[in-house]
Amino acid sequence: MKRREFLKQAVAGAAGVAGAAAATGCGSSSSGGDNFGAEGPRSATTGAPAVHTQPKVSWRLTSSFPRGLDTIFGGAEVLAERVAAMSNGAFTIQTHPAGEIVPGLQVLDAVQQGTVEVGQTASYYYTGKNPALAFDTCVPFGLTARQQTAWLEEGGGLELLRDLFADFNIINFPGGNTGAQMGGWFKKEINSAHDLKGLKIRIPGLGGEVMNRLGATVQVLAGGDIYPALERGVIDATEWVGPYDDEKLGFYKVAKYYYYPGWWEPGPSLSFYVNRDDWAQLPRDYQAIFTSAAKDAAVVMQARYDARNPAALSRLLGQGVQLKKFSDDIMDAAQKATFEILEEQAEADPRYRAVYEPWKKARSEAFRWWGTAELAYSQFAYRGA
Ligand code: CA
């Protein structure tokens, strides 16, 4: 609603009556329709008369996430709002949550095949297509949010990953980060690596593979299926994101131990995907607008997490949640298993190694630097917090 109002104002301001008509079309589309109909072109000028020379471009975005996650899905909405604002409403992106156009885990395919022009997702969902895509999001014991952003934007990481994404006719843009995640919700205490044996835990991706090597029984459940499984004891534990998102799913009602850190996701980066054919057809100034808008969305997402997690943690503690830190024994075993897996994958695939080796070097250098001023300050300042 807010975006529609915004678009109406932006377009009406720029193009008068004709623009308002275009905005109405956009509004009806966001409630489930399509500007062009099912058989129409995916990306085209709308034909609406305009008082300026900017071509009309209307794209659709499909997300891996539900609308209710105002942190992550909100990033897609910020992208759309910024693109519309910077183009005076001429370039619009309709945002669709998971399931409206395609299921949440089919975003890569939908962008690759041109079903939509844009996707919002996490690249580690697609490691079945290419394991190295995980580095676009995060790997266990990898980079924190700021380190990941530095590596992608200024450390050569994005170029390496765009080379991989070219195989899928996709150009990828960093689109936000959750920051370090929590380890998740456990019905009983886990004191040593031995306690992981036989533990039934919901955890996807490489983190799940590591847990599996440590003897846990790993299950992958979609967001809406986790709570009942935890409540009924089908699983003993689950990870999700962090206090703000986790609170919404209510896990604290059925599992009181809240472990940290989520060593498998120290700084997962979300991504926007754009179909390369659509990108090539986009006017150069719109390409610049999209690129800037994606960076805006990334900043806003991280800020929302950083602004909302602290209060959410306080509320959870008020509900009797018990914070527990993973023991060094667990962390050591998990890190060892992680690097065994990363090295095995590098051994098996030269293109994986071509990303892994520079990433490993960047990680090593980053950790030396972050282990000085940031670490010393954090260790001193957060004592007793
Ligand atoms: Ca997670």
Quick structural overview:
The protein is an alpha/beta fold and 385 residues long. The chain is 49% helix and 13% strand. α8 (243-249) packs across α10 (284-318).
Structure description:
The longest helix has 35 residues, at 284-318. The strands form 2 sheets. A 6-stranded mixed β-sheet has the order 7-6-8-5-9-11, with helices on one face. Residues 1-44 have low confidence and may be disordered. The chain has helices at residues 2-30, 72-86, 107-112, 145-154, 157-165, 205-213, 223-232, 243-249, 276-281, 284-318, 328-348, 350-370, 373-381, and strands at 57-63, 91-96, 118-121, 170-177, 184-186, 200-202, 217-219, 237-238, 257-260, 269-275, 322-325. It has 13 helices and 11 strands. By secondary structure, it is α/β, with parallel strands linked by helices. It folds into 2 domains: 57-177 and 268-306, Bacterial extracellular solute-binding protein, family 7 (D-Maltodextrin-Binding Protein, domain 2), CATH 3.40.190; 184-266 and 309-352, D-Maltodextrin-Binding Protein, domain 2, CATH 3.40.190.10. The structure holds calcium ion.
